[in-house]
Amino acid sequence: MKITLIAVGKLKERYFEEAVGEYAKRLSRYCKLEILQVADEKTPDGAGEALESQIKEKEGKRILAHVKEGDYVIALAVEGRQMDSLEFARRIERLALEGKSQIAFIIGGSLGLSPEVMKRADFSLSFSPMTFPHQLMRVILLEQIYRSFRIRAGEPYHK
Hints:
By secondary structure, this protein is α/β, with parallel strands linked by helices. Helices cover 43% and strands 21% of the residues.
């Protein structure tokens, strides 16, 4: 299985880079992982709705440029469906059984994802109604993907 993580913005903190690197190394036993970063747009303070919409559209085009035709796309969005780790692992397993061998996870910028990206998504996933820093969300997502592969393999994991 190939997992692609497409995220807006660069990792700025070394400890996030190290954490992402650690999970990438762990995941190499289970899948091929590709992490792609697309440029984010600066959002000026007090930006109006029209400007925010333009920013999301620009970032969305950059994201969609990396989505392949056969990808099963999972967009991370606060309004998405929440699930526990076992349910997430079962979803990944089901996708594999259905022959969906390429999964693209998308993490948007600070304003979220454009309507075009949400339209392309096959599934919308929420980790919480809370807002998390985008750099931290990469680590959380990779940890959950790693956990799902451990669960699927019948290997121990912490509940």
